[in-house]
Amino acid sequence: MLPWLFKRILSTLPLLLVVSIMGFSLMRYHVVLGPIDLPLPTGHIIHVLDRLELKHPVDPLANLRQNPQITPEALHKEEMRLGLTQPMWQQYLLWLGSLVGIKFSAVVSGQWQDVWQPPSLGQTMSGEPVIRVMSERAGNTLLLNIVAMVLTWGLAIPIGVFSANAARSRLMWPRLLDQGFTLVSALGLAIPGFVVALLLAVVAVKTRWFPLGGLQSDMALTWPLSRQLIDIIWHLMLPALVLSIGGIASLQRQMRSNFLEVSHADYVRMAKARGLPPLTVLFRHALPNALNPMITLFGFELAALLSGAVLVETVLGYPGLGALTYQAALQGDVNLVMASLILSAILLVLGNLVADMLLAWIDPRISLS
Fold first, then answer.
1. Model confidence over 98-118: pLDDT tens digits?
2. Inter-residue contact 137 to 319 (CB < 8 Å)
3. DSSP character for 42?
4. 42, 88, 130, 354: which could join 121 in a potential S-S bond, CB 3.0 to 4.6 Å?
């Protein structure tokens, strides 16, 4: 286990490095296609590539430059603080050093006593450490993702198993329920997430069943602990529901298909022929084998929840990392956006790692070595 885990961690380091370089480049520059001569000449591919230009997408200090009260000296000081006067590769090394806790300028100058520094992920546009700003919101996003994951998998797996059994039933009403679940899941996959968020936001405003914005009510700190917990759950239900609708629709269809396939396997029919109870056949023979493909999807679902939280938190006013990253991207706050990007990549890697370990635990045919 330990050698395999060590190799997996080492293999992810180049991946994270490439993701960080691509993300940093896209934040600093964007590709613009200049005018093209028509008709295209013989070497049209080279002609098109010659028209590609790199330009700055967003000036982080654009608002300050438009303020007549800001002096050029103050603007220059901000440019120096953010490293905007340096070449792009030096800006990237400056950010990478803040991520891993190494001061590369001290390495070049030979000041070895100043090489190590506590990782801070750089500074935001307002001058605050990124790690402190993200830590204030990370707990809210983590709580939302945990609730959404429990809701998604806790509903998708039983519904998928029930639909698979109902599809093989000789009675009419189970088959009608299976068709109803199939229709609802198709609607959940067809309707975009932002449309669902907007519709449920309108319902919440009209009916006042769920609150919008924040994680607690205004006077919640003065309430007893039990009432505070109920209030937090009340605030979490709407964003967690929006975040999990698409996952429930896709996972229950996948689980239904897997269970139908496993139900016709030889070992399941042999278990039934031996006279084993139906629940034993279900939980001991059919369900573990039907869960194998679902566990593989776990890693992708974990990273998808964080990316989906950007939309949900922005539309519903939930105070998490998603809304913070969206505002940072609009303002051109490279350090904050890069920290969120690396966090999302790490979650994807960890999700796949946990999925592989769960597969080895459930399926004895799989060996981590």
1. 787 777 766 666 776 767 777
2. yes
3. T
4. 130
Stated as kind and residue range, the H or E segment containing 53 is strand 52-55
What are the residue ranges of helices labelled H in 168-286?
172-190, 193-207, 225-263, 266-273, 278-280
Q: pLDDT tens digits for 358-369?
A: 777 776 676 666
Residue 48: the pLDDT is 47
How much is the pLDDT for 312? 81
Q: In this structure, are residues 160 and 253 in contact, taking their beta carbons and an 8 Å threshold?
A: yes
pLDDT band for position 33 (cuts 50, 70, 90): very low
Phi, psi of 172 (to 5 degrees): -80, -45
Q: Give the SS3 label for residue 145.
A: helix
Q: Which pLDDT value is given to residue 42?
A: 53
CA distances from 228 to 210, 223, 224 (A): 15, 6, 6
3-state SS assignment for residue 40: coil
203 CB-side CA count, 13 A? 11
